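name: query_chain
kind: protein
chains: 1
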Amino acid sequence: MSKKWLQLSRILIILLTLSLVGCAGQTNQQQGTGIGVGVGAGVGAIIGQAIGGDTGATLLGAGIGATVGGIAGNQIGRYMDQQEQDLRNAVAASNAASVRRDQDVLTATFKGETFFDTNSFTIKPGGWAEVNRVATVLNKYPNTNIKVAGHTDSLGNEAYNQQLSERRARAVKNALIQYGVNGNRIRAIGYGESLPISSSNAQNRRVEIVITPNQA
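structure:
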């Protein structure tokens, strides 16, 4: 590795480390800004080095990138904050749903029996009501990507459970589309019994709708 690229690598590591350390104890929006600063600075530094070929250009690029990245990170954090609040409000009356947030990733988890009868991938009336609540929020915030994840318990045949989880995920995806959510935003995936969250079979039977910001 050449000396200038070694120097650039050290700068990138410092910038990214500082941005991540600075996120500790901050709000989700502040964390988004900090991460955006770090990533923007890293990208800007690479561009600066490629164009100018010296340390001055690298640092200038890092500064510009940090500014742009910080603005973008702040906007994404605020957007996800608003969506989180609306999603929590939408499912507040439901005893079958919970919402959690990990940085800018929202996950709405629904009890499997709310959506489906045993060994079925036909959505029950109560499941349609839950899908409608979520779809209303998703349509309000179109700049997000959606993953519908189906999970089963470990009872029965593993291959059967995998297939059942995939069919259930596709059923929920199709239901969201029927309520107006753009199908290009949605990815349906079945995990079968591979990702348990509890020793309780009832808790492991679940549907998760995972929402991430579209940063394209």
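note: Strands lie at 97-102, 105-111, 144-151, 186-190, 206-213.
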